[in-house]
Amino acid sequence: MWAGVRGLETLDTLPVTASREYGLDRGKVFPAANAKSLLNPLRRLVQSPRRTVASIGLNEHSHVLELGCGPGFFSPYLARSVPNGRLVLADLQAEMLVLARDRVTEGARPVFVQADGSVLPIADGSLDAVFIATVLGEIPDKTACLTDVRRILRTGGTLAIAETRRDSDFIAISDLRALVEPCGFEFTAQRGIRWQYVARFECT
Q1: 3-state secondary structure string, 6-36?
Q2: How many angstroms separate the most distant Cα atoms in the chain?
Q3: pLDDT of amino acid 19
Q4: What average pLDDT score do residues 40-59 get?
Q5: What is the mean pLDDT of residues 43-72?
Q6: Residue-level pLDDT at 18
């Protein structure tokens, strides 16, 4: 067990999380019952997991969290990017973590944590990077989430957020910066276009 995470290496038992509203509408948690649609191969044509993960700037020793990993669309690429590092996959729904676990077969062996995005069971300053893809818009208290992400990142660490207009909870880059920067981050880079991008921030 990686000491930086107060979580689990298996999915035998998982902590209870706060009640949330599930559905496909804006502001609702995308339900695990629809998870397979997130793994549609056609998604790669508009949101390449390889290019998205490459844009984070990880190295093989990085300690990284994927917050809201869902069924693991990006997770295998993250694991292969940090073969000698640490990977934590966190999601609100245990069913999503089961699907993600089955997809990660190479690279770093993940720790799986069921958790609410606003209260992360991870030690202070223990991570080099946090990756959030099309999830931040689902979290009711975004400031609490970003503040906790700041807590678990080391100074100089990276927060990478991927957004796409295809998601009902899409956050425009100007709105994203307005949310993230006051929480202890400096905007450093953007890859992609305004309706589909990865934004990088440095933990200050």
Answers
A1: CCECCCCCCCCCCCCCECCCCCCECCHHHHH
A2: 41
A3: 63
A4: 90
A5: 94
A6: 52
Are the beta carbons of 87 and 78 closer than 8 angstroms? yes
Closest by CA to 89, choosing from 106, 120, 105, 65, is: 65
- The residue among 83, 95, 102, 114 whose CA lies nearest residue 35 is 95
All domains of the chain in start order, with CATH: 40-203 (3.40.50.150)
Number of C-beta neighbours around residue 7 at 10 A: 20
Q: What string of DSSP letters covers the chain?
A: --TTBSSBSSSSS--------BSSSTTSBPPGGGGGGGG-TTHHHHS-HHHHHHTT---TT-EEEEET-TTTSSHHHHHHH-TTSEEEEEES-HHHHHHHHHH--SSSPPEEEE--TTS--B-TT-EEEEEEES-GGG-S-HHHHHHHHHHHEEEEEEEEEEEETTSTT---HHHHHHHHGGGTEEEEEEEEETTEEEEEEEE-
**pLDDT value at residue 98:** 95
Determine how many CB atoms are found less than 10 A away from the CB of residue 204.
Answer: 12
